Amino acid sequence: MTTEQDMADEWASALEESGDAEPEVQNVELDELEDTSNATSMTPEELSRLDSILDIPVTISMEVGRSKINIRNLLQLNQGSVVELERIAGEPLDVLVNGTLIAHGEVVVVNDKFGIRLTDVISQTERIKKLK
Questions:
Q1: Cα 120–7–31 angle (5° rounding)?
Q2: Which candidate, 130, 99, 102, 131, places its Cα nearest to that of 116?
Q3: What residues contact residue 69 under an 8 Å CB cut-off, 6+ apart?
Q4: HEC string of 54-98?
């Protein structure tokens, strides 16, 4: 079983290999996080309703980019074909939950698996503004 320190060491090692790591990294002790939300001011009935939605599955997707092509070109695609995306290389990926943009991130590789490091989380007020 790996400890949190082992996992942190693996990530640091992988980041060093990718060239993203800072030259000097120091471990620091952090205080325990406290829940500062208004959950304590919620009634038991409200907490019960909130608990009922916490296990609802959602679809999370990371979008590298998009492209529009006609059906003729789509049917001509085969192994080795390249589809040009509207994004510039190095531009952040979009992180979508059920089709709604919630964050931007960048691709990382750890132990031969892809992951996303979130670089910017869209605030709730910004998401609501986009709905209008």
A1: 65
A2: 102
A3: 83
A4: CCCCCCEEEECCCCCCCHHHHHCCCCCCCCCCCCCCCCCEEEEEC
Q: Which residues contact 61 (CB under 8 A, 6 or more apart)?
A: 95, 96
Q: What is the pLDDT of residues 79-111, one digit of tens each?
A: 999 988 888 888 888 998 888 888 999 888 888
First to last CA, the chain: 48
Please give the tally of structural domains in the chain.
1
Per the listing, tokens 């590789």 go with 109
Using DSSP, state whether 131 is helix, strand or coil: helix
Query: pLDDT per residue over 113-124, tens digit each?
Result: 888 899 999 888
Sign of CA dihedral 126, 34, 53, 60: positive
* 104: its two tokens: 């931007």
Domain of residue 63 covers 57-132
> Is 70 contained in some domain?
yes
CATH no. for residue 90?
A: 2.30.330.10
